[in-house]
Design goal:
169 residues; seven-stranded antiparallel beta sheet; alpha+beta; 31% helix
Length: 169
């Protein structure tokens, strides 16, 4: 009898350890990184067509999922100001559609001083120290007015023609 209790107890302990490991993995951020020198290379490397503008170059995208804890993505690429605005409009439209609300016009404000991100802004999503997402280097540009859906934030560096976009839900 004592031996069967030990076997049962061992089985239960092993089951709890496995369950704990599964829960840990389930709630851990899963980050995927994509980069390419231009939009054509991006489409070739990652398949299909992308929503990136044809003029996009030096592309870097990080997508993160924290299971039921939410998703986030950050995007940086160089392109014309018009292409950057069109990309932001398309992203905003997707989230407006998911919310079941009509798309409203996007408003940009002039960047008066170099923007900064809050400390630990992406760590919940496993995005750690993205030195390449250097919005603090913007001297002149446009910032998407706050208050948009899913924390969609966008900055366009008009001196260097770079788009920075952050979104989470």
């Amino acid at each position: 009898m004592k031996r069967s209790y030990k076997i049962l107890l061992g089985f239960l302990i092993a089951l709890l350890i496995c369950l704990g490991a599964c829960l840990y993995l389930f709630f851990s951020p899963h980050v995927r990184v994509f980069s390419a020198s231009n939009s054509q290379e991006f489409a070739q490397k990652y398949g299909g067509t992308s929503s990136l503008p044809a003029s996009a170059k030096n592309i870097r995208i990080e997508l993160s999922s924290v299971s039921i804890g939410g998703r986030a993505h950050i995007v940086k690429f160089e392109a014309t100001e018009a292409d950057c605005k069109e990309y932001v409009r398309a992203e905003f439209k997707v989230y407006a559609h998911w919310d079941g609300k009509a798309e409203s016009g996007l408003q940009y404000i002039e960047i008066a001083s170099s923007p900064s991100l809050p400390p630990k802004w992406g760590q919940r999503y496993g995005i750690r120290n993205p030195d390449w997402f250097d919005v603090s280097n913007i001297r002149h540009g446009l910032e998407l007015k706050r208050g948009n859906r899913h924390n969609l934030r966008a900055w366009i560096d008009t001196d260097r023609n770079i788009l920075y976009l952050y979104c989470n839900d």
